[in-house]
Amino acid sequence: MITLGDYLVVSGILFSIGFAGVMLRRNLIIILMSLELMLNAANLSLVAFSRFRVGANGLPDYNAQVLVFFVITVAAAEVAVGLAILVALFRARQTTDLKDISSLKF
Amino acid sequence: MNPISPWIILLAPFVSATVITLFALRWKTLSSSISIAAVLVSFIFSCLIFLQRTSAATEFTWIAVPGFFHVPFGLTLDQLSRTMAVLVSGVGSLIHIYSLGYMRDDEGKSRYFAALSLFMFAMLGIVFANNFVMLFIFWELVGFTSYVLIGHWFDRGAAAQAANKAFITTRIGDFGFMTGILMLWMATGSVVFAEVAQRMAIFAGHATLVAIVALLIFCGAVGKSAQFPLHVWLPDAMEGPTPVSALIHAATMVAAGVYMLVRVAFIIQASQTALLVIAWIGTITAVMAALIATQQDDIKRVLAYSTLSQLGYMVMAVGLASNDAAMFHLFTHAFFKALLFLGAGSVIVMLHHEQNIWKMGGLRRRLPITFITFAVGALALIGCPPFSGFFSKDAILAIAYERNPPIFAVGLFTAFLTAFYVIRMLVIVFFGNPHSDSARESRESPSVMTIPLIVLAVLATLGGFAFFARNFLALPIEKEASAFVPVLALVALIVGSGLAIALYRNRATERVNVELLRHKFYFDEFYAWLIHWTQELLARVAAFIDRWIIDVGAVGGTSRGTWGVGALLRLIQVGNLQAYAFLFGLGVVALIYFAVIR
Lengths: 106, 598
Description:
The complex is a heterodimer of chains A (106) and B (598). With 106 residues, chain A is mainly alpha-helical. Chain A contains 3 helices and no strands. In chain A, α1 (4-24) packs antiparallel against α2 and α2 runs antiparallel to α3 (63-93). Chain B is an all-alpha fold. In chain B, a hairpin with a 3-residue loop joins β1 and β2 (69-73). The termini of chain B are far apart. The mean pLDDT of chain B is 85. Classes of the chains: A mainly alpha (106), B mainly alpha (598).
């Protein structure tokens, strides 16, 4: 029997992988992908919560699933903007490596 | 007599000054005529109110803040002010006329006469003022006109500096005067003489307060009447034209201090301490100035120091609570000192502006009228009977003998010195042989100059006799016990004169040299040093504050503080996007922690 806990563990692992990717990788495209991973980890836990919270009428709680749709929409918008920035940055600097993007440093 | 006429006395010179300044500066003869007409109008009306004993004048309200502050613009008319008005306008008239001769070819004749008229206005304002505010304003106006007249020949550096010195030195005294007036107003709630006099009971039991108020008011007189230690300006003021020296720095303005003290005697006599201080200041001034005068070579400076000395006598009399004696001496002094100055002016003009007595000599034959009148003035000054100075100085010495023997002793010594230096000057200037070409070729002055001399000589002779002076003043009452005071004074006079004649007869150079007296007790040097170091000290303190507190502390501190904080903060700016993100995450965690859990 797969319980809510199993889903949450998977979701947590995915989130951690995403977080580690954001924190440790140098390539901006990978970082953007890691961000998506973190968002989807959150979506997974939300869907799991929905499925395991059954109301008196025998139906799951759809509120959480609605929220997931919002997150997917926002993530799509974010990817669009993020990739556009990335392209602009690449045109300006010819690199997507974070080590070379440090002009705020004193 | 209608109550407007006292106002005419006051306003005639003012109108003259205004008209000359605005319209007549270009026409010298016209300006001098206007000015002389104005002072004569003042004199005639002064005589009228004097003879008719007018005691009422229209009064205006000037400033009125109900229940708080009330300043009328009114005139005091009593025996004292009527006499003073006659004296001021009378001596003033003579000096105006004399100025016609003395300033005959002067470039700034119109300016001179305008200032002279303005001075008459201010001086008569002091005489007639019936409250402290009015008195103070006219007092300052007198100071200003004195400044203008001393600096009349402003293209001569010494005259311009002397004018500044007179103005600034008297200002020190005036500051005290103003403080005294303010304190008096705070205590009594009034600035009108009559009301303050009625409310003097407030001061009962506050001896210190009344002494402070009296001495602060006395400060004004110290400045204006050139008493020790603010006497330094008067001898320098001799840089002005000689008629100005006669009018302002001998007969009237410097007497204003004494007149003011007599006017506010009700305050001064409320404090024994103040009286004692005033008496001693007067005494010190008298003897110090007489000592200095014995070693001066400039004829006007000798006279200036003798003025100081005589003013010292008057202040001494005020301090001995004898206003009558002070006013008596003021009255006679106005005549004989104006006479002496005008005589000196006559000598100076005829010798082509030579003031050094060692370049004169033998003028007795060349300038007979000047000599006789000058001698009358000199004899009156040293107190030789029957000239006026004898009576008034004797009155002061008698009071001093009665009330304060040490002051009497110093006063007597001063009388001896006075005789010495006056006879010294007389002998050197008028006797012996001429010591320069200009002295050999001099001629008698024109009659416009000699007539005022003769009139003043008559007045200086008569001024002391009771039958004459009684009409003008309340004469001090002589005590029987003081009968031998005149004898002592005469002995001092004879010894002083004899010594001077013995030392200086037929001499062409100075026989005695006392550097201390020649340098006027080094007062000017001392003040210069004092001012130099006060200024230096202030400048150094200011420089320290500017350099270390403002520059280094405030301005430099702000910039260095900003730099320092910036240097600390920029350590955080590592330039690594992930580090920022990490810190951002930490911040969010911290926020959640504080918002939710705490």
